[in-house]
Structure formats: structure tokens, C-alpha cells
Amino acid sequence: MNHFLSVEDCPNPLGWAHEAIKLKEHPFQDKLFGINKTLGLVFFNSSLRTRLSMTRAAQNLGMQTISLNVSTDGWQLEMDEGVVMNGKNAEHISEAATVMGGYCDVLGVRAFPSLVNVSDDYSEKLLLAFKKYAGVPIINLESATLHPLQSLADLMTIEEHKKVSKPKVVLTWAPHIKALPQAVPNSFAQWMNRVDVDFHIAQPAGMELDEAFTGEAKIHYDQSAALRDAHFVYVKNWSSFKEYGSVGNAPSWMMTLEKLKDTSNAKLMHCLPVRRNVVIADDAMDSAHSIIQDQAKNRLYSAQLVLRKILTQ
Amino acid sequence: MNHFLSVEDCPNPLGWAHEAIKLKEHPFQDKLFGINKTLGLVFFNSSLRTRLSMTRAAQNLGMQTISLNVSTDGWQLEMDEGVVMNGKNAEHISEAATVMGGYCDVLGVRAFPSLVNVSDDYSEKLLLAFKKYAGVPIINLESATLHPLQSLADLMTIEEHKKVSKPKVVLTWAPHIKALPQAVPNSFAQWMNRVDVDFHIAQPAGMELDEAFTGEAKIHYDQSAALRDAHFVYVKNWSSFKEYGSVGNAPSWMMTLEKLKDTSNAKLMHCLPVRRNVVIADDAMDSAHSIIQDQAKNRLYSAQLVLRKILTQ
Amino acid sequence: MNHFLSVEDCPNPLGWAHEAIKLKEHPFQDKLFGINKTLGLVFFNSSLRTRLSMTRAAQNLGMQTISLNVSTDGWQLEMDEGVVMNGKNAEHISEAATVMGGYCDVLGVRAFPSLVNVSDDYSEKLLLAFKKYAGVPIINLESATLHPLQSLADLMTIEEHKKVSKPKVVLTWAPHIKALPQAVPNSFAQWMNRVDVDFHIAQPAGMELDEAFTGEAKIHYDQSAALRDAHFVYVKNWSSFKEYGSVGNAPSWMMTLEKLKDTSNAKLMHCLPVRRNVVIADDAMDSAHSIIQDQAKNRLYSAQLVLRKILTQ
After folding, report:
1. Statement to judge: residues B156 and B84 lie in one domain
2. What dihedral do alpha carbons A135, A137, A143, A145 form, nearest 10°?
3. Smallest Cα–Cα separation from A283: which of A268, A293, A298?
4. What are C71-103's pLDDT values in tens digits?
5. A26 with A303: CB under 8 angstroms?
6. pTM higher than 0.80, yes or no?
7. C47 contacts in A (CB within 8 Å)?
8. How many domains does chain A have?
């Protein structure tokens, strides 16, 4: 059974990106692939793009969907083994995941990290419990540490917009008012390390990502040095991995139009949602540099490709 | 692109009402019109009739639907331009609306007024932001000031039940325990002013609606005088427009069977939900005067007609 | 019109169980039965299995679905007649149920008991209001006193696993940390009393169920005596019927692997969700005795059979 939990489940990132780009021309051509199949979407956290794009992707493939907001539609789940369940959790993940897998042909799961306990979060307990118990393919809709559907859409967007064969891609930290997961930057780094780009990451001291994900990326602490001659600037906030979950404080790292002027007319990327004038200034957001909406739109096709791969495996 | 935000987007209200009535005979005849199309339903406020009737209307046309409860499924949106987004709003409407439009072919939007700031509410900021940014047709599912899907259903119901060519239609204020929007009465007035009826509005002093909507309606402060010889009595509470959002206090304006006796055997209308024995007494609700359930059922066909118009424009 | 509110609406429980078992072989064979039909699912309480299994069952039959979480998507409903509705309830059930029935072809309703007022709960006010007003077939998705879709799945599971023609079936109370409804055990008793099994119920003193449902079941106060030679052990907590809603306190009634050793190699059943090591110990849950996941999976087919019966009546 093929899951889609990380780049490890994608044998050919560049090939998949180009297949997903091709889907745009004939989005309904595979409408019979999903007949009699149901995709269950299990949300432990809120979602806008992921919920809409996955649902639409399934519809384009002729699949049915069922969405479940675990905490409001259902109840809280116990993740640990051997527990006397006399607290707030009314059902064990081993039962719930098995049941959900029994009614659905594919399950998508979204579950953010606590940002409190790094080993709990980085063990991906919940996602792996679904993989273990559900008995059907699992799609990661953003887990504690990774967001591969976003990364595949990001790669598609770079491939569509690149003008040199090996572009300089810079992932730069930006400020935020609260602690955000590391899932998007971790995952982007994983994918960039599998394709032929000149990949850089810039962040203030203390905000380094887990080296297990950043791998061979060139690391910078000077944002303006990192941005020089960049072809793609991916802006994203994340909380600290080292001082786990701490927000960081470096307001000068906000992306602006001025900063983009030093690049090689770079394309500006962000996964959304973005807090304007905190993460990215209006003048950059609303400039011709931005390909942020192309990126968002590509979420539909990255989702549809992954679903098609699973339906036809 | 054709939106459906108000009566201004309907070139022929009477014609549309009769087309919607005809839909009832063969509700599934247009089932191929919606193939490969997805309707996104975006709820900033709760909904029963609108949610169910729009979903069913889409299904009757072969469309897929995706429903999003913005505050529980997603997060709060910033409406103002140029803001430093360091507060509770995690995403700007300009991004969110563009994204939603990117995944859906048509968007329906429900967003009630604050009833605090009249100029904010009456500028229809949120609805117009969707129109500006989404890039797809927008359907008003009840906005700060208008509810045109309700009004089209109201007109259908009048056309089905009228026994004289130019009926006397009376919209009368009724009491309520809390501040309700003016959207339903504003919109009803707009639609009545476009068709050939003798249109009257009755309310206590201080509860007058915005003249931009009431137009040529005959205004009464004496409910019993207004009701005399009426063929249709549309009962509805609304909060004050002049003293914006104030509830008003006139319990004697509750509709009763006794009051209906002075009419020309009038049909009783209300858009629902209705608080019994506060807005309308049980004896009137449960009398043969009531066509309230016909009105509610017509919401399905008014929604289906508007969707069909958009799909075939 | 055929409703499905209790075993009374099933003329042949054993026959239906076997029809449902046959559905598993060709779950999509009746996909045209539901064409142009919409199932409305109305949830006054949270749900995981019921929500997913009913939705999937409808999809397997080609039906569309609309789900409504009454309290979060809509508003609270008034159940009593003649009330001045100046409190928290914004709409009367008589209006809301009629409207929902107007937009849907079949309605499923889930509404738990208060566990405060026994006569209110046991009069099944809400479910019967839907039956009275909706004008379409109503399916009980677990009401104040009964859960017949669960019981049909339970009977299917017994039929699939039984090795003697008249098995000994023991329903045994188990501890819990909060007051749970009596709906599942009431309903299971009703169904067992209609088929050819040797049916026993065991509970601590004070936790007896309503005799209207238990009927001819053999009642035990000694769990180990009851379990002896059992072929099926159905474990379930319920709150007291006599001291209405009280939780009870008998931790020694938790099911364990040790207790199952005294049975005739009994199959272990539970309707889920289950609190591990409170209701059933891990060693029993994870043993070969358990057919709990078969039971859960059968919910899909019991739902699909009931829907098919309604569509083809």
C-alpha cells in the first residue's frame, strides 16, 4: 500500500511536479478513476486551502468525500498505549483509525504539533498511528513535522516560473506573533534537497531547523546576503526547533519590496495564510514578484496527482 | 461575469419567479449543467434553510459542493486594507477570497452585519471583497443588508398564491427579543418595488428602514390600518436603522389570528426562523392563512434558478 | 411511509441481518436506487461511526448527503408546544423539521437524552416531532432510548460469527466515568428478544434497564455466573434507569481476558467508543476474542440496508 506521508513516498519529485502541471490541461480526464471510492478527510486542526483543495481534487477524480472535524464532530482521542482512559479522551486512536479506514478507501489526516514536547511531535505519533491501524492509504494533510502536499505544489510553481535551469531558491524566516509549526519549511527543505536547485536557508540565530530535514542546504544568518541573486524567495515563519516552540523576535526579517530589489528579480512565495505587514509587507505582497496565488492554486493539482497515484497504484 | 448580490443582478424579477416555479415540475432536468462544477458555500454565520436549500439546489443541477464554516473550520479574516496584521485575524480577505475562487466555480457567501457600525455594515465590505477578489460568480446567501435568494422565493410564493392581479402586500414589523438584521425586509422591499403590487410597510416610530431600499412603499405607523384589505401579510422583525441596532419595544405588534381577520383573507408570510408567540402567535402560525412552509420550500427553487442562470450565462 | 425508529419498523430482524450480510459482496450494485435522492443527516450530538457509516452507505447507493450539526451550524430548537419563545431557542421543531423534510428525501436524526428527566427522554419527543412534521422517512441515528442501526449491525455480527444454532448471548454492564445513555443496551435487548438466542443481561443492583425493553431476558446480578458458557459477551456501560442518570460505581465489572476464559470461547462485542482499561482491559480488547471491529464495519452495511429498504419501499 502506498501512503503519502513525506517526500520518501515520492520516487520522483521532479517527475511528479511535471505530471501535476499537465493535470491542469485536462483536470477531469480521470473522472472514472475514483468511482465508488470515498476519501475521508480527518481534521484535528482548522484548514482552509487543504480542506477545499483536497475536496475539489477528489471531486475532479470522481471520488466521494467525507470530512470529519474530530474535536467538534466527534471527540478527543487517546494516543498512548496502555493508558487507563479515565480522562478527557473518549476513544483510543487504534479503534478510531481502524473504524475510519473501514468506511473509507483513502484517509487524509491533518494534525498540528503541540510545539511543547519536541520528541512527541517529531515522533509523528498520530500520523503513524493512522498508518498502523487504518488499513488504507494515508495522505499527510500537514502533520507535526511535514506538509508534503504543500511542497509538491511549491515545486510545481518553481518549475512553472523558473527561467534558468538551476535557480537559486532561498527559504527565509520571517517574523510572526505566535508560535507556528516547522512543518512547511522542513518539508520544503526535504523536497528542494531532492531536485536540482541551488538551495539556501536564512534565519536569525536560534531559529535553525532540524538538520535531518535541511540536509545540504546552505545556511545563512544574514538575510540580505542570502537574498542576493535569488530567483525564488520563499518567505515563512516558523518557531524555534532548538528552544522548542519559542516565537523568536526579529521584526527586521519581514519581507519587503526593497529587499526583493537585491534579488535576480526573484519570484516571491508563501504557503498562506500570511499576516500582511508582519510576515510580508503589502508592497511585496502586491508586487509583480508575487506568485503566491499560483502556489495556492497548485495545491489543487498536487492533491489531485497524489490521489490519482494512490487510486492507480 | 454574473453575480447575484441583489435585485440589481436580476433583469426580470417577475420572469425569474415564474421560471423558478416551472423548475418544480422537472427539478432534475438540468442535471448535466453542473457537471464538473463545484459550488463553495462560505458561512461566516449559522444557517439552516440556506445551507440545506443551496446544497440541494446544487445537487439537483449535478454540481458538487464544499461547505466551509469560516470561524470553526478556518480562521478569522482581516477586511481592512493596509493593516499590520498582528491581531486576531490570521488571513486577509484578499488572499482567502482569491484562494476560494481558485478551487470553486461559484461561491456563495453568508455574512451577517455587526449591527454596531452602520457605515461598515451598509458598505457591504465583505461581500464586495469576495466580488473583487474571487474571480468567480458570487451568490449572496444573506449579507449585511440584503437577502435576495429569500426575496426571489418570496416573490415566487406571492405569484403562486395571488388571486388578484395587483395584490396588496403589507410588510409589517413584529417584536423580537434581540437585534436582528434588516437584510430580509430591505431586500423584500427592493423586489416588491420592481413588480406590480400595492406595497405597504408598517412599523412603530423609530423602526423605519433605509429609504434607499423602501423606495416608493407606502409607510404606516398604524398596523391595523396597514393590514386592512391586505392580500399578503409578511411579518418580520428587524432592529432599528436610525438608532442603529436598537431592538425596539412594541409587543403589541405581534401578529395574531385576530389581526388577520381584518385583512382580505390574507396569506401570512415569514422567512423563518420565527419565535412563536413573540413574533407571531400560535393561532396565526397554525391557521390556514399561513403559507410560510411554501415560502421555505421555494428557497430550494429560487436557489436552483439562480445557480442555473450562473451556469448557463 | 416507512420510518426506521426501532425494531418495530423491521418486520424480520433475522432476514434483514442476512440481507445486510449479502450486501457486502456487491456493495455498489444498487447505485441507481439513490439517484436524485438526498439524505439529510441532522446531528444534535457528536458522532464518528454513525456520521461516516451513514454517509458512506448513502454514497454506495448513489444518494447525495447533507450533514447539519444543529448547534454549531444552526441554532437551538424549541420542542414544547404553546411556548412563548423568548428564551434561547430560536426556532420551533415543527418549523425546522418541516423545512428539513422539504429539502431532503430521507432524514437521519441523532439526539441523545438529557439523562436528567426520564419521562422527557423516554417520550422520545424530538424523534417523534421529526416523524410528525418532516413528511419524509426518518432514520433513528441514536435517540434518547434506542439505537436500532447499531443493533442491526450487532445482529449481523452475531450471525456471521455464531457456531451453534442458538448461542448464549450475554449483555454485561461495565464501569464508566460518566453517565451514558441506555440507548444501545435497550435497543440490543429489543432485537435479541426478536431472534432465537439464549439472551442474558448482567448488571449490578440499581443498574437494571427498563423492562419495556429487556422483556424476557434472563437477568443476573453475578457477572461471573452470567458469563459462564457464553458464546457472545456484549460489554457496555449505561447509567441507571431507576435512579435516572446516576453513574454507578462497580469498577470490578470491567471486562478482562481472565473473565472471558470462563466463557465458551466467547466473542467479545462493544459498540465503540470504548475507554480502554475502564470498560474493557487492554488484554481483552487486543485478544482473539474481540470482534469489535467487525461490528463497527457492519454499521456501514446495516445503514445501507435500511436506506435501501426506504428507497425501494
Report:
1. no
2. 100
3. A268
4. 777 778 999 999 999 999 999 999 999 999 999
5. no
6. yes
7. 73-74
8. 2
Asked whether residue B160 falls in the same domain as residue B136, the answer is no
Nearest to C103 among B53, B273, B276 (CB): B53
Examine the domain organization and report whether B176 and B282 are in the same domain.
yes
- B/e letters for B147-185, b = 16+ CB within 10 Å, e = fewer, are bbbbbbbbbbbbbbeeeeeebbbbbbbbbbeebbbbbbb
User: In this structure, which amino acid lies at residue A222?
Assistant: D
**What angle do the packed helices C93-103 and B292-311 form, to 10 degrees?**
40
Q: According to DSSP H, which parts of chain A are helical? A: 13-23, 49-60, 70-73, 93-103, 118-122, 125-133, 148-161, 183-192, 211-214, 223-227, 257-260, 282-285, 292-311
* B135 and B195, same domain (yes or no): no
Enclosing domain of residue A101 = 7-146+299-311
DSSP A291-306: -HHHHHHHHHHHHHHH
ipTM summary value: 0.95
Residue C272 near residue A91 (C-beta atoms within 8 A) = yes
State the chains in contact with B (3 or more Cβ–Cβ pairs under 8 Å): A, C
Residues A286 and A307 reside in one and the same domain: no
C-alpha cell belonging to residue A206: 536560534
pLDDT digits (tens, 9 = 90+) for B253-272: 999 999 999 999 999 999 99
| Same domain membership, residue A115 and residue A49 | yes
Q: Write out chain C residues lying below 8 Å of A96, CB-based.
A: 48, 273
Same domain, C250 and C302: no
Phi, psi of B35 (to 5 degrees): -60, 135
Same domain for B240 and B270? Answer: yes
CATH number at residue C221: 3.40.50.1370
Q: Would the pLDDT of A298 be above 80?
A: yes
